[in-house]
Design goal:
There is one protein chain. This protein is of the alpha/beta class. It is about 25% helix and about 20% strand. The longest helix has 14 residues. Its cofactor is Zn(2+).
C-alpha cells in the first residue's frame, strides 16, 4: 500500500510516500511538518528512506526520520549530506512488496531518481513529471531544460501504456491514464 503522509499538510513540503509491505520504506521525507508522528500512525517501523532527490523540501525531515527509526537514507549521490548509500542508475530497489528499477533522471537536479515497477505498474516520478503535462523546474541550480527533456523521454521509453499510477513529488498522484500525463509532459517541456 502507498500512502501520501503529506496529503493534507499546509506547509512547504514535498509529498511523502509511505510504502508498506515486505520492506516498509519512506520515499522522500518532506519538510516543515512532523512526519515522524505521521509514519508512526501508520506503521511501527521503517527499513529505509529512499530519496528521489535532495532539494530541501524533500529532505528537510531526513535527520528526524533517521533518528526516530534508526534507518539509513538511499539516494543517487552519497557526497550529499544525509545520503548514506548510493542507488545506481538501473539498480533494482525493493519498495514495499515490489521491485523497482531506479532511473537516473537529471534536469531538475543532478541527483534526481525516478523509480518504476513494471510488475506493479507504478512510477515514483519525483519532481521530473507532474499531472496534466507539468514538469520539474529548471530555473534552480543544476536545472537544465535539455537534460530534463532527455530524462522525461527516458522514462516515457521505459514505462508501459498500462501504467496504473504515477506518484509525484508535489500535487496529487495520477491514477487515471498516467502514461498520457507523461507523454503530455514530454510535449509541454519542448514548448515552454
Amino acid at each position: 500500500m502507498i500512502t501520501n503522509l503529506a496529503r493534507n499538510v499546509q506547509a512547504f513540503t514535498s509529498n511523502v510516500f509511505l510504502v508498506t509491505g515486505d520492506r516498509p520504506v519512506l520515499v522522500d521525507t518532506g519538510a516543515n511538518f512532523d512526519v515522524v508522528d505521521a509514519v508512526r500512525s501508520e506503521v511501527d517501523d521503517l527499513e529505509a528512506v529512499i530519496l528521489t532527490h535532495t532539494h530541501r523540501d524533500h529532505v528537510g525531515n531526513l535527520a528526524a526520520v533517521k533518528d526516530a527509526f534508526g534507518v539509513d537514507a538511499w539516494g543517487y549521490d552519497t557526497s550529499i549530506e544525509g545520503v548514506d548509500h548510493a542507488i545506481a542508475d538501473e539498480e533494482q530497489v525493493r519498495l514495499g512488496d515490489h521491485e523497482y528499477v531506479a532511473l537516473h533522471t537529471p534536469g531538475h537536479k543532478d541527483d534526481h531518481l525516478c523509480f518504476y515497477s513494471e510488475g506493479a505498474g507504478i512510477l515514483f516520478a519525483g519532481d521530473l513529471i507532474f499531472q496534466n503535462g507539468s514538469f520539474g523546474r529548471t530555473d534552480l541550480e543544476e536545472g537544465d531544460r535539455t537534460t530534463l527533456i532527455e530524462s522525461i523521454d527516458r522514462v516515457l521509453e521505459r514505462i508501459d501504456p498500462s501504467l496504473a499510477a504515477m506518484h509525484t513529488g508535489h500535487g496529487p498522484s495520477v491514477t487515471s491514464d498516467p502514461y498520457d500525463h507523461v507523454e503530455l509532459s514530454a510535449r509541454m517541456a519542448r514548448q515552454s
